[in-house]
Amino acid sequence: MTHTTSDYATRIRRSGFRLTPQRQLILDAVCEGGGHTTIEEICARVQAKAPSINRSTVYRNLEFLQRLHLIVAAEIGGETVYEIAHNRHHHHLLCQGCGRQIEIGEEALASALTAILRDYDFLVLADHLVLRGLCGPCRAQTE
Amino acid sequence: MTHTTSDYATRIRRSGFRLTPQRQLILDAVCEGGGHTTIEEICARVQAKAPSINRSTVYRNLEFLQRLHLIVAAEIGGETVYEIAHNRHHHHLLCQGCGRQIEIGEEALASALTAILRDYDFLVLADHLVLRGLCGPCRAQTE
DNA sequence: TTACGTGCAAAATATTTGCAAGAAG
DNA sequence: CTTCTTGCAAATATTTTGCACGTAA
């Protein structure tokens, strides 16, 4: 969940791009989100530290950081959200009751996806899926 | 995949709302999409038949038809898409190579979701999931 | 006849782009 | 120095809203 700045710095420079304060702050902002973070939240965090940073810079860099696979995007309820890229593929459980996010390894769905490959001749590439539902406490509360 | 107008008409009227030509055309447009249809496609189809129908009417009615559970929405790549509501829960496989859509029953993921309930005490409610990947022919082509 | 719905236009949001000035390497 | 980046502003794109008029039931 944490990111060591130097690592990212190296990867950005190695790719022939520059590590600007803006990029660091945007990366920090995505990281601080813990799980999924919206553009709005990213802008807020970034501009709290450096108000002069423009929205378009945020847009451009979120796309840039995705291209370098330093962050990944997912859709939740029509909204694009971002998080720091893990090496390990994984998915998320998002509780509609309390908003809690649970991260699960890709193995949780692996057998189902294998079955789909077998039954439908279709290779699912979807990493980083968001599955919505209800966690135990919230289900108990609803009943 | 088809919808009998009278059935929908009845359901709309029973709920105390009106069946307008606009609503019929919008419902038809969603239906013609076969699988998932974007707002843009819906507007195009609707306005081909009745150019005077306004975009805002389309927006309003897509929301309206969702409330009545006559259509359902899903997100693909940040875009909201619509389709006629089935009674049967199901998911979609979307080929990133050729754009082909394959519909799969909910049972394809059932065991995985049951395992998630057991392992994480989390009940996944996500019906109508969109899984992206590559179909057989497209995988063969890529290699 | 009576609300429910629609078209229109304008407002509110969200995202993208061109360009000159700034700065990382 | 070089050219990648940024900020700014304007252009686009997308969605929502208010309101008077139209119409389904």
Short description:
Chain A contains six helices and seven strands; from the N terminus they run ααβααββββαββα. Chain A is of the alpha+beta class and 143 residues long. In chain A, a hairpin with a 2-residue loop joins β2 and β3.
Structure description:
2 copies of one chain form a homodimer. With 143 residues, chain A is of the alpha+beta class. The first copy, chain A, has 2 domains: 3-84, Winged helix-like DNA-binding domain superfamily/Winged helix DNA-binding domain (Arc Repressor Mutant, subunit A, Orthogonal Bundle), CATH 1.10.10.10; 90-142, Dna Ligase, domain 1 (2-Layer Sandwich). In chain A, 47% of the residues lie in helices and 24% in strands. Chain A contains 6 helices and 7 strands, in the order ααβααββββαββα. Chain A has helices spanning 5-14, 21-32, 39-49, 55-67, 107-120, 136-142, and strands at residues 37-38, 71-76, 79-84, 90-95, 101-105, 122-124, 130-135. The first copy, chain A, has a 3-stranded antiparallel sheet with strand order 1-3-2. Chain A starts with a helix and ends with a helix. The mean pLDDT of chain A is 89. At the A-B interface, helix 5, strand 6 and strand 7 of A face helix 5, strand 6 and strand 7 of B. Chain B binds a DNA duplex (25 and 25 nucleotides) through residues 13, 16-20, 22-23, 39, 52-57, 59-61, 64.
Examine the secondary-structure arrangement and name the CATH architecture of the largest domain in chain A.
Orthogonal Bundle
H/E series of chain A, N to C? HHEHHEEEEHEEH
* Low-confidence sequence ranges of chain A: none
Structure summary, number of beta strands of chain A? 7
What overall form of chain A do the CA principal axes indicate?
globular
The total number of structural domains of chain A is: 2
The strands making up the biggest β-sheet of chain A line up spatially as 1-3-2
Q: What number is the mean pLDDT of chain A?
A: 89
Number of helices of chain A: 6
Strand content of chain A: 15-25%
Looking at how many chains there are and whether they match, the oligomeric state comes to homodimer
What top-tier CATH class of the largest domain in chain A fits best?
Mainly Alpha
* Terminal Cα span of chain A: 34 Å
